[in-house]
Amino acid sequence: MWLEIICGLIIYQLYRLFFYGGNHALDVETSDFNAIFSVANRLEKLCGGKAYVGLNIPDADTGTRKNIDIVLVSKGEAAVISVKNVSGYVSINEDGTWTCEGGRSHRKERLPDPVAEVKKRVSVLESYLEQRGVALPEGYFSYKVIIPNPNFREIYRNFPPEVITYDQWVQLEPEPKSTMFGWVKGALHGGKKAMQDSFHQQLNSILGTAPMWDRLELKGSKYVLGEFLEFKGKEEDTHALRHIKRSKVGHIATQKTSMLGLAHSKLQVVYYPRDYRSEGASTSDWREVEVRSSTEVVFHPSNSDKVRKYKLSSIMSMSLSA
User: Fold this and answer.
1) How many CA atoms lie within 13 A of 257 on its CB side?
2) What are the backbone dihedrals phi and psi of residue 107, each rounded to the nearest 5 degrees, phi first?
3) pTM of structure
4) Distance set, CA 57 to CA 70, 116, 212 (Å)
């Protein structure tokens, strides 16, 4: 019996080593990213429309880029959403900051005012859209902070209306029953349908080509947002992948991973025009590339100071922002 258990553990460790390497996905903190994608998917089901995840918008005032978790766009309204995957006992201080105790870090933490942060993100996004020619109705964007973590506990229950706590989040129902969109400004309601459709088409088109974080989808339904840096591995493999550049490639999907002989991954690489100013040039092309599954993707997660390496055998797909 013990021999069977030991053999099973060895096989499991070999499996983990093959698919994830020494710094495998199970050791990486992906829960914050997973929470963002989970909230975005549920918002689309609850409210309809389109959720844009992981925007990285230039801020002209600071010369830096600001991360926006989600922009939700539906008919007549749009919202900027900040997802706070906080746990433990959380209270609000007089200056708007949050104090969290008993969370994942097991120590007392003080978080910047999430409502003030997301409000600033609205201003940055509005400026960016105006620079790209979108005439936004006044007050068109609303903003919310959503807390999807079931281990969140609020103290004193003094959270502002812009915050949707976990208890509120799980009770929301699909439209039209849901009162979630009580923040709707109705900015375009009552206008001509053709004007509304034209506006939303323009808004969705620009958000679809806005700067975003690069995205990794890992096996096990895990996500990582950040910046792709390079490939590491055997020279013949990195040479075969040399054409994968941000200026040309938008998406890479792992079609097949083989564990027999020399383990290889077959990748489908999708090319399409990256310059949003080239109207009408939306055709794409693709090719297949086969390299060793041990080839690594060097990636810098946006929520970490450390650069990570992920084996191709652990990756379902990778999307690169323009």
Assistant:
1) 18
2) -145, 165
3) 0.82
4) 12, 17, 7
